[in-house]
Amino acid sequence: MIFGIEHKAYERELISQLLSAAYTIFGASEMVDGFVVLLDRLPDLSLDVPEAAEVLGKFIARAVFDEILPPVFFQEAKVNNPKASMALSLAHDLYEKERKRLAHVWGPGDLSSVKRLVKEVLIIVKDYLENKEVKDASTCIAALHAPSFNSQVVRYSLTAAIEANNQQAREDIILLITHLHKTAVFSPYDVKHGFELTSRKIADISLDVPNAKATFSDLIERATKAKLLPEGFVCK
Predict the structure, then answer these.
(1) How confident is the model at residue 236 (pLDDT cuts 50, 70, 90)?
(2) If DSSP codes are grouped into helix, strand and coil, which group holds residue 32?
(3) Quick one: which of 94, 30, 100 has its CA closest to 68?
(4) How does pLDDT run across 106-127, given as a tens digit for each residue?
């Protein structure tokens, strides 16, 4: 949850779902203890993330809604700092007054907006291939505030290059990914995993682009030369 507090709505929704799925592993008491630890740490967390109390309050309300925390947690959780009291108060108010909305407590950045993210990425990549503005495209991708989606951004970019079926598009896409990597928008894992995701879709892409496999091999070669991928990279 600390990761979620420090990141955005998309990651927070992923974490809420992970906590719900992990309930059968951790059990009720461990889940309660984990939230109490975070309440105790709120003063420190708030130094780096001023809205930490609000975010944790939403995590708590969502956890009660998902039935991985008991409703009595609002009253029985032992807190020893004002930030923790604020988080519990907010969580209780959300649960009592906006319960029907808690499934989407993280707003437009939650997983329900994956289709929106895909549409935005496709538009950004299409515009980039037309205008060649690397910095503009990079700024737009960073502005999505969805780092967990970065591997998918790589995949959709590579797919666009394959479907364009020309050398210039391949050069442009590798240039864009390289820029995003050098500016730390994309991590090495994002790039590598994006290529792996694309590899899994090559058979489907080949239905519309018969030479997709050869084109993808060329993209891998270019990415390796650009040091985006390690030498001898093989898609898993």
Answers:
(1) low
(2) helix
(3) 30
(4) 865 555 567 778 888 999 999 9
120-144 mean pLDDT: 93
CATH of domain 114-225: 1.25.40.180
- 2-109 against 114-225: fold identical: yes
Nearest to residue 155, comparing CAs of 183, 192, 107?
A: 192
Q: Give the fold, CATH level 3, of 2-109.
A: 1.25.40
Is the Cβ–Cβ distance between 99 and 66 less than 8 Å? no
Locate 129 and state its tokens: 């291939």
d(CA 47, CA 234): 43
Angle at 43 between CA 143 and CA 31, to 5 degrees: 85
Amino acid at 189: Y
Contact 117, 144 (CB under 8 A): yes
DSSP string, 152-207: HHHHHHHHHHHHHTSHHHHHHHHHHHHHHHHTTSS-HHHHHHHHHHHHHHHHHHHT
**pLDDT category, 162, cuts 50, 70, 90?**
very high
Q: Which two tokens stand for residue 104?
A: 């989407």
AA letter at 108: P
Listed by start position, the domains of the chain span: 2-109, 114-225
